[in-house]
Amino acid sequence: MTNRPVSEKGRNSLDRFTALWSLSPEFLNKHRVSEMEAHGSGRSSRKRKKEGSNGEAEEDFTPVKMLRCSMGLTEPALFADEIKVPHNTPYIRVTLEEARRGTPLERPVRVYADGIFDMFHSGHARALMQAKQLFPNTHLIVGVCDDNLTHKFKGFTVMNEDERYDAVSHCRYVDEVVRNAPWSLSPEFLTKHRIDFVAHDDIPYSSAGSDDVYKHIKEAGMFAPTQRTEGISTSDIITRIVRDYDVYVRRNLQRGYTAKELNVSFINEKKYHLQERVDKVKQKVKNVEERSKEFVQKVEEKSIDLIQKWEEKSREFIGNFLQMFGPEGALKHMLKEGKGRMLQAISPRQSPNSSPSRERSPSPTFRLPFFTKISPPPSPRAASARGYHISEDEEDED
To answer: How far apart are CA 94 and CA 134, in angstroms?
Structure first.
């Protein structure tokens, strides 16, 4: 058995815990508020005024939850072999009705829970929490079996006994830890630790040649059942490790553990290193595939965007083309206008008959000497259409 050093704060808590066994009830009732403040509770009785039969105000005390003698909220729980308990006070068990109703402050209900507590997990903590909450004023004692007894009846453990003791002592619901706890509880052990009730799940625990090691506790009316937490246990955790053994070995090899420390052969070590390299290559290929998928997705999104923009621009272009070159487009109107202007420029309108005519000088006529016959002059209408103007001399000759 190894004794850990007790700090100054631990000594003060130990002295205060030991004083609870020797102080009188009158002293405790007198200093109840200060003791509760010392434990961090800070609760006190609330006074409520009511009118009596004579009309005078009377004070009525509302009962509050009794203080739990808990040392494990700010520091680890104390070991039972480190506590000096005076034996001048006789050991008298409390009944279940008294425990449920609430015991005096100087007499908490002493509840005992035992186990192996290997790889301490949330299932252990929940069981101890239920044991702590059985009664309003509970002092929880937890017994932890040593390695020899555990390996004999239970099997090999992951954590050694000192690690298991320390893990339980740091649970917030534990007030006292019994090291080297027995496998089955004898009357002498119950009397030595002044145990009122034993907390454990109600499933019969067959071990050490017995169908239920808690059978005599149940018959004595000292058994307080708790509920197991489904889905979590030490065996489940070990099963996970065994199932994923290769993963955890490779993980520890990466973190600097040697093959000798992990009990791994030379060939297996090389195999794990090769698997690690293969996994890295697979991860790189997977990353490239993911990046390529992202790239293809982005290209697809951009192509869809470009197609939509091209469709919009093509519609706009076709619309503009039809407006310009369509049957009723702007170009047709422009050509009509240009044609009208050209015709107007070629053949301007004649001035009206009423308007005075200008006298024009006779235009010289040119006749070819080869022709003796003179062609008849064109009619005035045809001449005007061809753009010829007949002079007055020509009219006189005719």
So the answer is: 14
pLDDT (tens digit, 9 = 90+) per residue, 291-350?
A: 888 888 888 888 888 888 888 888 888 888 777 777 777 777 777 777 777 777 777 666
Q: How far is CA 277 from CA 126, 250, 273, 283, in A?
A: 42, 11, 6, 10
| Beta-bridge partners for 226 | 201
Amino acid (one-letter) located at 263: N
Q: What spatial distance separates the first Cα and last Cα of the chain, rounded to whole Å? A: 161
The angle subtended at Cα 50 by Cα 45 and Cα 52, nearest 5°, is 130
Task: Compute the distance between CA of residue 346 and CA of residue 143 in angstroms, rounded to an integer.
Answer: 127
Q: What was the pLDDT predicted at 20?
A: 47
What does the block give as tokens for 292? 């390529």
pLDDT band at 167 (very low <50, low <70, confident <90, very high): very high
- The average confidence (pLDDT) of the chain is 76
CB 378 within 8 A of CB 388: yes
Residues in the chain: 398
Distance CA 64, CA 46 (A): 8
Number of C-beta neighbours around residue 92 at 10 A: 8
Q: Which two tokens stand for residue 137?
A: 């004023």
Beta strands at 223-226 and 197-201: parallel, antiparallel or unpaired? parallel
Q: What is the largest CA-CA distance in the chain?
A: 177
Angle at 88 between CA 83 and CA 91, to 5 degrees: 80
Q: Are 102 and 68 in contact (CB under 8 A)?
A: no
pLDDT of 73 = 64
**CB–CB of 378/384 below 8 Å?**
no
Amino acid at 340: G
Residue type, 264: V
- Identify whether the C-beta of residue 22 lies closer than 8 Å to the C-beta of residue 86: yes
> Of 87, 84, 114, whose CA–CA distance to 174 is shortest?
114
**pLDDT, tens digit (0-9, with 9 covering 90-100), for 146-166:** 999 999 998 999 999 999 999
Q: Given a cut of 70, is residue 247 above it in pLDDT?
A: yes
- Tokens 């000192």 correspond to 162
Tokens 């053949």 sit at which residue? Answer: 347
13 — phi, psi (to 5°)?
Answer: -65, -40
